[in-house]
Amino acid sequence: xxxxxxxxxxxxxxxxxxxxxxxxxxxxxxxxxxxxxxxxxxxxxxxxxxxxxxxxxxxxxxxxxxxxxxxxxxxxxxxxxxxxxxxxxxxxxxxxxxxxxxxxxxxxxxxxxxxxxxxxxxxxxxxxxxxxxxxxxxxxxxxxxxxxxxxxxxxxxxxxxxxxxxxxxxxxxxxxxxxxxxxxxxxxxxxxxxxx
Length: 196
Description:
It is a single chain. With 196 residues, the chain is of the alpha+beta class. It has a domain at 53-186: 2-Layer Sandwich (Beta-Lactamase), CATH 3.30.450. The protein contains 5 helices and 5 strands. It has helices spanning 3-18, 20-33, 35-97, 101-111, 149-152; strands at residues 117-123, 129-132, 157-160, 166-173, 178-186. It has a 5-stranded antiparallel beta sheet with strand order 2-1-5-4-3. A hairpin with a 5-residue loop joins strand 1 (117-123) and strand 2 (129-132). Helix 3 (35-97) runs antiparallel to helix 4.
């Protein structure tokens, strides 16, 4: 044998005994042999990641849309009540000037029959309730039931109470002075904006 052949055999023997060379060959051969499986695995991971990302984005958009729709519904309820109270106050005004409380009682009892109307109260400027759809309230001070601020209001006020009811308070103006205050409580209809 020649010197070159002996030297190459020694290199092969020394590489085989250390174990480094065959491992690298085995690792490269696994990647090369299983390249299809690795690509499929990477594609599955990418598709799963996109699915999770889209699902999170859709849930976030649904929450935002639900909140926006809830705000719009509440705003529409408030506008409706503002619009409905104005003519009622005009009718109550004319009867309060004449001190015709029986007619006011008829107006209020008819009005409270509408869907979600909870309570309507008419009080004098001193705070004494003169007409109410709940007869237990008549004669009592309005501040026992409602915030004292309703007596000081000089314009129509719409607010939401802690329990979710909407309160509308409007002054009943005579020719030059306030002759009373009308307070209306409305329970908004509950709604579910989630998909069935």
